Inverse folding.
């Protein structure tokens, strides 16, 4: 990558301000999935081993931005990180920044770890007011000599801790670089899209095709096939002239999808059978062995014939990018399509394909079935991976020092 990384700088004796993504699920004050914390460990351990003083910052959930809220405290993340590192992790004050935080940083010895409280306790973190953002960013930057971005999941956000803080560090002469996780994310996403082994197959799903129009348009010029499932498929099927019953359809996108399908030249594969129901909340699943769905039913998952077609395409692929489930996979009766895709991608990977799972529900799905380790790369950022795959600029990465 053209961005400097933590391997390119000396952190010995320096205060290293690292933006991580510890936005982890909690239950009763306990971290229920520590994957995002574990993914940050290589960068964290590198700084510890090289004698730096770690000042970590992250968001968690969506607090109001009006000050400390216990439900969104990063204490559970600090405790989990301490457990994983086998050493003390100090949690910063409720105010996040200010004199108390500065005192804690000044007392740090080389190799110590401090985790600031949730940066979203401060309204300026996500503010649209440049003056507010700049003021908070400078308070964060005052706590570090070096800035490291290892929070790929929020790299598509121009937030104070993601963009303003590295600008402020650079303004006072310090380096701003990528951590190992961000480096890894960009490497796999870049190679998958810009230098893919072929056949290159993209698998897209999820609820709204409007969320992925740019992605589909971008990928059409790069892939050999795009397999589309999930609720977004019904808008495309309607654009083809199929009956979709009560399935979720974005009516304002039907005409756009007709143009997109015409442009695709046969690269897009859509479901030709379905698992449907008459009641989303509790209706029984019904197999529809036809591309058309009866008026009183709604599609909930791809059917067995589509599973077989998709599986064949996946197993023939050498590069696979997957973003979005094939159906309502959270419910067992509608999980077969998503699970079959996950298993096929894992099998293809085992046979030499490169597979990149684009975060979000896709990452949750492969985790649900214990397939994480059988994929080449599982992204930590759903929205960020979409932005990167679409070819859109990512200010939080572009602000970092170039090699």
């Amino acid at each position: 990558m053209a961005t400097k990384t933590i391997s390119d700088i000396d952190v010995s004796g320096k205060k290293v301000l690292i933006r991580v993504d510890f936005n982890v699920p909690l239950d009763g004050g306990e971290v229920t999935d520590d994957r995002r914390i574990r993914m940050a460990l290589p960068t964290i351990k590198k700084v510890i081993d090289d004698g730096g003083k770690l000042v970590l910052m992250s968001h968690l959930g969506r607090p109001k931005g009006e000050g400390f809220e216990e439900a969104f405290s990063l204490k559970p993340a600090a405790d989990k990180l301490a457990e994983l590192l086998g050493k003390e992790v100090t949690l910063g004050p409720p105010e996040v920044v200010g004199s108390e935080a500065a005192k804690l940083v000044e007392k740090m010895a080389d190799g110590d770890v401090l985790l600031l409280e949730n940066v979203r306790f401060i309204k300026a973190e996500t503010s649209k007011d440049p003056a507010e953002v700049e003021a908070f960013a400078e308070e964060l930057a005052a706590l570090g000599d070096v800035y490291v971005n290892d929070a790929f999941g929020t790299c598509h956000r121009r937030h104070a801790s993601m963009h303003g803080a590295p600008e402020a560090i650079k303004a006072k002469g310090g380096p701003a670089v990528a951590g190992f996780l961000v480096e890894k994310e960009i490497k796999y996403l870049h190679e998958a899209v810009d230098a893919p082994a072929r056949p290159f197959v993209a698998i897209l799903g999820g609820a709204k095709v409007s969320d992925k129009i740019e992605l589909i348009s971008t990928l059409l010029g790069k892939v050999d096939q795009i397999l589309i499932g999930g609720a977004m498929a019904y808008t495309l099927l309607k654009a083809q002239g199929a009956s979709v019953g009560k399935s979720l359809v974005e009516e304002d996108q039907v005409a756009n999808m007709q143009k997109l399908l015409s442009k695709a030249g046969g690269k897009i594969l859509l479901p030709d059978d379905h698992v449907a129901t008459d009641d989303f909340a509790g209706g029984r699943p019904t197999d529809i062995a036809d591309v058309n769905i009866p008026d009183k039913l709604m599609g909930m998952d791809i059917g067995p014939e589509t599973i077989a077609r998709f599986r064949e395409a996946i197993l023939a692929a050498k590069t696979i990018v997957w973003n979005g489930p094939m159906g309502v996979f959270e419910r067992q009766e509608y999980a077969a399509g998503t699970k079959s895709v996950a298993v096929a991608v894992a099998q293809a990977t085992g046979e030499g394909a490169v597979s990149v799972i684009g975060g979000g529900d896709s990452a949750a799905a492969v985790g649900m079935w214990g397939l994480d380790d059988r994929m080449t790369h599982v992204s930590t950022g759903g929205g960020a991976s979409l932005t990167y795959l679409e070819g859109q600029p990512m200010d939080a990465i572009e602000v970092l020092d170039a090699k």
User: Anything to note?
Assistant: The CA atoms of residues 158 and 395 lie 6 Å apart. Residues 6-181 form a domain with the Rossmann fold fold (CATH 3.40.50.1260). The mean pLDDT is 94. The first helix runs from residue 35 to 49.
